[in-house]
Amino acid sequence: MFDLDRWIEIFQTISKNKLRTILSGFTIAFAILLFTLLFGIGNGLKHTFERDFARDAQNSVYINSGVTTKPYKGLQSGRRVQFRNDDIKFINEKFENDIQYFSPNIQRFNVQAIYKGEQSNYTVRGVYPDYQPLEEAIIEEGRFISALDIKNKAKVIAVGKMVEKDLFGSKGALGKDISLDGISYKVIGVFSDPGGDNDERYIYTPFSTAQSMYRDYDELDYMGLTYNPKLSIDQALAFSGLLEKTLKEKHSVDPRDQGAVRVFNYAEGAKNVQQFMFVINFIIIFIGIGTLIAGIIGISNIMVYIVKERTKELGIRKAIGATPTSIISMIMLESIFITAIAGYSGLMIGIFVLKSLGDSLEKYFILNPSVETYVVVGATIILIIAGTIAGYIPAKRAAQIKPIVALNDE
Question: Fewer beta carbons within 10 angstroms: which end of the chain, N or C?
Fold first, then answer.
């Protein structure tokens, strides 16, 4: 039950001991403030890695060709390995059960795009429909490349949001015709990309269309795929290793040759990121727990001092009839009140500081420093509980002291 007289008494005690109250509150507020800032900066580091690692699907594998650096089976070094359409069929048949999405790619740089006097240069990629989940492109309007577009060698394109902004402004690109190096293409879709502005400056067209326009015979530039998401990181790395080995055998490349066939598996990066994030999380948790322990020790020391300082007062209260229970509850309520208010103040200051810093820390690889509300609220509750316990133990001892002993305390 709410006891108004008890709370009036608590506020009177606080107002008469401003310095003591401020010092108690400062210890708690500073602990929560430091806790909030540490977690916010730690989350900012995690956000940076998540952003940089979100440019493609997490289970992506990209296969590039190059020049041989070693002679093999009577073939000289310096030979260019060229992927062709038969490699597409070969990979899909050989690794059918391990592949989720697959797309060959033809890439053309510095293609001049013109629309009604507006012009700029972009990279055009000829791809399969499966390239959309590979890049994690999000269709905002219209659609992506379809199988029918591939079959008909259609002159259609999907453009990134930045391409739309550059050439069309607020008019919108969907359904418009764009000239690419003098050839007209219709915009069938507009996409965004978690990789940011750079990835939204690509233009996608059907693979068959790009191959007929930019490559002789059945040549292609590189291939991308996503492996079965059920594979573990170690299984995924073994899969990409077998893929590289198989392609080297097909193209008569020395197994030790690192330049002719290059397979990049995001799983390797994912493994490194996981290890790094584990270290960051461990450091944050370790420092956070250390901060809370320091706050708890600070509260405990202050509460012991406060109760010691009020020994005579408590003796007088007992002498005029106050029960041990009423004395304990008064000290505990005061402790909880100060801890809760100071903890909330520290939380608000910490959140304000993080929001004020905002993007200014991005140059230090800290993106969107923030902290989950439940984490800091949980930490504040822990300090409140600690403050309650810290107030209860000395209060109980003080309540058990005989009035005559308390009044004679120096």
Answer: N
Provide the pLDDT for residue 136.
86
From the list 160, 167, 166, 168, the residue with the least C-alpha distance to 200 is 160
Distant-in-sequence, close-in-space partners of 343: CB < 8 Å, separation ≥ 6: 28, 29, 32, 380, 383, 384
What secondary structure does DSSP assign to 22-89, as a single string? HHHHHHHHHHHHHHHHHHHHHHHHHHHHHHHT-SS-TTEEEEEE-B--S-BTTBPTTPBP--BHHHHH
**Same structural domain for residues 17 and 66?**
no
> Which of 233, 264, 295 delimits the end of a domain?
264
Q: Is 71 left (phi over 0), alpha (psi -120 to 50) or beta?
A: beta
Average pLDDT rounded to a whole number, residues 94-115: 94
Helix (H) or strand (E) holding 330: helix 324-357
Q: Is 117 exposed, middle or buried (0-12, 13-18, 19+ CB in 10 A)?
A: exposed
Provide the 3-class DSSP secondary structure of residue 320: coil
Alpha-carbon gap, residue 379 to 74, rounded angstroms: 69
Per-residue model confidence (pLDDT) at position 1: 45
What is the pTM for the complete model shown? 0.63
pLDDT tens-digit map of 222-233: 999 999 888 888
- Contact of 240 with 61, CB cutoff 8 Å: yes
Residue 317 sits in the same domain as residue 259: no
Q: Which amino acid is at 287?
A: I
Q: Classify residue 18 by burial, with Cβ atoms within 10 Å: 0-12, 13-18, 19+.
A: exposed
Same domain? 260 vs 276 = no
CB 157 within 8 A of CB 183: no
User: What local confidence, expressed as pLDDT, does residue 385 receive?
Assistant: 79
Give the confidence band of 296 by pLDDT, cuts at 50, 70, 90: confident
Q: In sequence order, what are the beta bridge partners of 192?
A: 138
7, β-bridge pairs: none
Q: pLDDT band at 377, cuts 50/70/90?
A: confident
CA distance 294 to 207: 62
Is the confidence at residue 53, as pLDDT, over 70? no
